[in-house]
# Entry
Amino acid sequence: MNEVLRKVLIDGFSFLPVFYPAFSPFNTYYFYPLFFTMLTVILTLLSMTAAAAFLYVRHRKHSLTPPQDCYLGLFNDSPAALMVITPERRILEWNQAAETMFGFSESEARGKDIVSLIVPPSDRIHVVSILAKALREGSSNSKNSNITKSKEDLFCEWRNTRMTQNRTHKEGIICMAQDITASQKALDDLNKRSSALESAGEAIFYTNHKGLIEFANRSFFALFPLDKDAIIMRHIGEFLFGSISGLNAILPQFDANNTWKGTIIKACKEGDKVFSVVLTAIYNRNRLVSYIANLHDITEISSHVHALTHKAHHDPLTGAANRAAMDTRLIQAIGHARNHETKIALFFIDLNDFKYVNDYYGHEAGDKLLAGVAQNLRACLRNSDTISRFGGDEFVVMIEEIKNQEHVETIFHTIQAAINEPIVIDSTTTLTAKASIGMAIYPEDAADPDGLIKAADASMYTVKKQKNGQKKSASIEPEPVLYADSHNH
# Structure
């Protein structure tokens, strides 16, 4: 063996003498030991280099490619539903999260068409196009409906990534699904509420935590033809009540549900309108988040109610308060006077010879005389004073917060002068009414409503008796004048 090797080496290195004379056949005996030593060193270095390269490559290979069991562990333990499918959409791998989400075990899912398995018919064309996009472009995302093994509906967010072919995997798609059914339902509910809010027939708006208006629906702008810029970021107090302090004034009136209900009057192009308002304060952990206002135009209803209320509490002929309204107001006035220790004056007025007017001039003239007297009384008294038609030709006037006797006498003469004002009946007739006036003072004459009215009525009859027991009728002339009685107490 050594001889063969020696021959090969001699023949193989026979070119050396040409370049190096020391390697001629005559000198090989001396140089072979040196050559073999050099060769041994070279082979040793090559072996060590090859071994180091092998170890390095092996180390790099193991550091970049995880073992199969590690990959499977990560795949199966992922909290997200993961699945690997072929380009034909056949399921190759199906992790535990996918099984939990969709109800199919790995054995049930493997080999099945993923679209047919978990996508409802209504979304299948869309999902097929999304998976084709992942193969074509490398990735795709979608949100679509899914169904479980038990036929329950899910709504999932999908992320699909193309897997390129290599020694361990064929080309395919790795799909990751996340169940967003709950969040999507919340979003759908929010959209429905937003649509309902926008399309509501009543005007609705809401504010931020500072009370500045952030949103108003279509009905609001139909009711208030304003530019959006004129209302957005405007303070709710300024818009509803004319000032921010107006909102602060009603805050103590909010109920246990943080809601205030009331009416407001706002000037519009068509004139003043009446609105019912429901204002709700929204809190989160005792921190104000928003005000929500709901407005409804009740102008027509309010006018109708006002007309009915007025009709129920007023005499239709004279417009003065009727007897029932006087009773109610007198009860309230006595309660107020008792609490504040003030006085009330009640004047009982009876028009004299009124029957003569009806008989001589007709009932239409009598009606005009009554309406004229009531109008003259209203013109000379305060809005807070009450004028009531108490009977056919009787009126009662209630004056609150009487100061002293001089004040009473001034009011008496004012009432007497108002009754004395001439009243035009028609183009040929003008009448001047005359009356007997009685008076009672709370609390001197009576301390209750019925007692006070009876005292004033009795005073009026006393005045009549003081007229010598004789009735004075109007003089019968083409244009008679009925002079009012002048009585002092």
Summary: The chain has four domains: 2-61, 69-185, 200-302, 314-465.
